[in-house]
Amino acid sequence: MVQRLVRKMSCWLLLTLMMNLCNADGLGNARKHELYQACVILKVPLQQVKVLDHPNLQDGFGQVWDHNFLAKIMEEEVSTNDIDVVITFDKHGISGHCNHCDVHYGVSKLLHANFQRSIEAWELVSTNILRKYSGPIDIWLSMLSAMKYKNGTMHCLLNMHPEKSFHAMAAHSSQWVWFRKLFVSFSSYTYVNTLRKIK
Prior knowledge:
alpha/beta; 45% helix
């Protein structure tokens, strides 16, 4: 099942869409450059990376993003780039960040607005705090969790090169502080990610 999903995903155009400059600390341009550096490490072609700097999509916990507006932007990208698969956060946004949650709801709106078009959407499953910081131990829990879904609506993806995640995050030097180093080292997301199909 996992191989089939990965094979399907590799057939489609990969577009990394960053919704804003992450300018909450006034470091937007630096963080944009850091994203490009991280993409080089992860071998994501830079021509397939797009950063939006829209006044309605500014970074921060106090900034609420309009879900209909997000759906409209994503619809343009899906249409322009002939995208068939979208991967996003789930409604908990992994860390509970409101902007992550907004993106999830924007994708949900996109799906409902484009029911006539064949778009698959998958969400990264948020885990509880114990599993979140259990490092590679969570591989077994994630695999067991995904095995319950025999209809192909959940897939467990292993990261065979977790050191690349560390190096990619380290490219974000403006954010590479001690607690993020600990997070990347001990986070289960560095080693395994579970995707669930959004209906």
